[in-house]
Each structure stands twice: as C-alpha cells, then as structure tokens.
Amino acid sequence: MPSDVPTDLAYLSATDALAAFRTRELSPVELLDAVLARAQETEPVVNAVVEYLHEEAYAAAREAEQRYLGKGGGDPRPLEGVPVAAKEEHPMQGRKLQLGSLLHADDVAEVTHPIIERIAAAGGVIHLRTTTPEYCAAGFTQSKLWGVTRNPWNPEYSCGGSSGGSGAALAAGYAPLATGSDIGGSIRIPSSLNGVVGFKPPFGRVPALAPYSLDQYCHDGPMGRTVADVALLENVIAGPWKRDVVSVRPKLVLPETYTGARGVEGMRIALCVTLGEYLVDPVVAANTRAAAESLRAAGAVVEEVEIAWTKEMIDTAYKTHFAAIMGDEALTAVREAPDLVNPYLAAFAEDAGSGAVSMIEGMALEGRIYAELGELLDQFDALVCPTTAVPAWVADEDFTATKLTVAGVELGTYMDAAMTLPFNICSRVPVLAVPSGFAPNGVPTGMQIVGKTYDDETVFRVGAALEEVRPWAYAAGSRPAL
Fold first, then answer.
1. Using one digit for the tens of pLDDT, what is the confidence trace for 37-64?
2. Residue 133: which residues within 8 A CB-CB, separation 6 or more?
3. Where in the numbering of this chain does the Amidase domain appear (predicted)?
4. Hey, which residues does 52 pair with through a beta bridge?
C-alpha cells in the first residue's frame, strides 16, 4: 500500500477513503477488510453489533472497486465503497427488526427505511447493524436481548443511547459513518460519550417512516468522526421523499468543504452552560468553556448568556409528549410481558405519564420554551452548550434504582443529565454535537452547536472551525485502548 495512505485504516475518515479510492491507492475491499477485522477484534468487549452483513457488503465493495477501476457499473457515486454502520431501528426489508426487545425477537421488517435506501443507492456499503436499548427508550444501550454495549474509551462506562451501538462502533473503528435517530438526544448523547460527531437535523429535513415521521420530536440523522464526514452522509440522506408528508422541499445541500477557523470570524455565538436549571459537572462546564474560548480565538464573538428555562417546563413538556406518543405502547408491552421487558422500559412508561398535562397545555408550553430560545437566537448566530451534564454514566446500571449525582446533588432521573431534550421540543433547530474534551475517567465530553430554525449550514461552519482550532481525539491521532 502506498506510504501516503494511513495504515490505521479502521480510523480512516470517509472523505479520506473516497480520495484514496479515486486515486486507486486503496480498494473498498481493503477498507471493508480493515473495519470488519477491527470489529471482530474488539466486539467481545464493546458489543455494539447486532448483525453482520458480510455477503452483501463484500458484493457492494467489489462493485465499488470495479467502478473506481472504470470496468463497468457507471461512475462512482457519493458514498461509493464507504462502510456504513446502520442502527438496527432503521428497518431493512426481509431482515429482523427486533428493537432490542425479546417481544420482537422474531419480527421481520416488511419495508426498508428511506435513509437505508439512499445510502445503498449512493454506493455506501452497509456492513453491520448496531445495538439499541429496548424500544430505543433509554439514554444508555443495554437489553435482555443483546446485553450491554460499552464505551470503547472506558468499558466500565456507557456508550449512551439510544444510538449507542452506532456511537460505540464509530469510536471503536468499525466504520467511518453510521446512522442514528434522536427523539430526546439519541444521536447527541452517544456522540458526546463516544467522542464522535452527530447531527440532529431540523424536523422534516431527513425523511422517515410513518407514524414517527409525523412526530416533531423525532429525527433521523448522520453520525461520524469528523464534521465533513457527517455533512457527507447528511447530503445523501436528506431531501424530500414521496411517502413523507413533512419532508422539506427543496433539498438542502451542505457545502463539501468549509473554511475552517475562518468560517466563524465575526460570528456572534452565545454560550450557555446550564440551559436554565441543569446541574452541570465542573469538568463538563470547564470543557464547554474551553471549546467556546477556542471559537473566540478563531475570531468569533462569544458571549455567555442565561436562558429562562426551568426544570419544570422541560419535564412537563417532554413527559406530556412522550405519554401521548410512546407511553401507551411501552405500557402495553410492560403489562403483557413484565418478565420479558427491561426494568427501564417499565420506568419509562411510568415516568412518561407522571406530571403530564393535556396535549394542548403541552403544546402551549412548547411554544413558551421555543420563544425563549427564539429570542436568544435572534441576537446570535448560534448557541453552544453541553450535551450531557455529566461526563458519563456506568454501563451496567439501568438507573431504575440508582441515581446520578452532580456535585453531590442527587438527580431525580439520569435523564436530568441529558441537556438534549430542549432541542427536541424546539424541533426545527439544527443541532450538531461535537466533542469538547475528556473527563478524568477517560470518557469524552461533548458540546451542542444549536442554530436558528433550518439554518443547518451555520452549525456545520461552527463545528468545522472548532475541529480545526481544537482537534478532537481522532484528528489528533488518539484512539481507544482496546
């Protein structure tokens, strides 16, 4: 292999892989070999893979190889030959769709999710599917069906959830790209805890299947290790779809490259560490402020602000919504098979209904929550804040009894540490989750970059600038010691 192609192929970025494919310095088959070998090596510890698609993946990789060699099949497509890990929640027709639940252990998908179709049509090589918690109803990834998925940086800790398997797979070197979904932070939480990048698109940007395509809290989106890679995948999966009435027209195409640090010169960025009443660990707060200071050094005007959200506002809004959207399904599962479901699903069903108000009262409250954010973003180009209030939570705990503490204060539920929920409530804002540093336990911390409604490009500009001036683990050559 030529000397200018990295030997650590498992951590090659998607954009670098495409460049090496085009110059024929690297074959898609070689890259697939490398990421699958890495998965086989570390899966006994990480446990992020539900299913390998070896036969289909190698057929796609060989087809891609022929395209780059000009031997038929047409010109290379946008993701030609790039391995992509798919969240198991995204159905693939004819394959199992288990949702991390023993209740669905034998279910088979009847349709394929539109983003899976688009990845395959763009030449992406879907080579494995990743773990989730049961019904994707937790911010950690464990289940009676699949066991515990662990953080590659420190296996004692959680990889987050519900796209935890995708986050862990990226961190462990199983793929340069992965799919995720986010109804309360399920892309951003694992991005934070695994030190990767994830994007919660604004509502309707990326198409989905009914009925959840109609749920404004719910978003499917891309995950990767670099900002450019996440933009690459977002450009493939975004855009209107004939079967999703909320999918936005016209399709937004993000720039292929950004101006790095220069992209934030003169930009006004708000920094808010607590988002109202969140209790934030001092390490998380310090890393967030350090990242914001890097943006200031790059030429942005960064101002620390407060936002008048209360814990009661956020809790009441999301519990009302979850009770209406997911509560009955979870409660039915718990009642029909209490011994088969995970304890956290029962806790979720109970919590979703507690403190809920009527739907119309909930909608009015959601309007008040966005009004606060809208006023702030009218004065700034973007907002930055922590992704999670604590560096991590342990992997083996389901948090139905154990409580998280921040600075000695016990939280009501571990989700009180998820600073992601307000931006599902404010569903039209784009949010890019990026790394902000490391905690003493060796687990990464993360920061959210929040843009004005449907202003996706700005959050990517800010993320690209931060990546340049404050390179995170993979750009700096650091890897999990597995």
1. 999 999 999 999 999 999 999 999 999 9
2. 100, 140, 141, 142, 143, 161, 162, 164, 342, 344
3. 30-459
4. 128
Amino acid at 179: T
Residue 183 backbone zone (phi > 0: left; psi -120 to 50: alpha; other: beta)? alpha
Q: What is the pTM of this model?
A: 0.97
C-alpha–C-alpha distance, residues 251 and 277, integer Å: 37
pLDDT in tens, 361-395: 999 999 999 999 999 999 999 999 999 999 999 99
Question: Which CATH code is given to the segment(s) 9-469?
Answer: 3.90.1300.10
Strand residues in 289-377 grouped as ranges (E): 301-304
Domain boundaries of the chain, sorted by first residue: 9-469
Retrieve residue 83's tokens: 């391995």
pLDDT value of residue 481:
84
Mind listing the pLDDT tens digit for each residue in 403-421?
999 988 999 889 999 999 9
Cβ 51 vs Cβ 95: under 8 Å: yes
Tokens of 286: 């310090």
Of the chain, the end-to-end C-alpha distance in Å amounts to 25
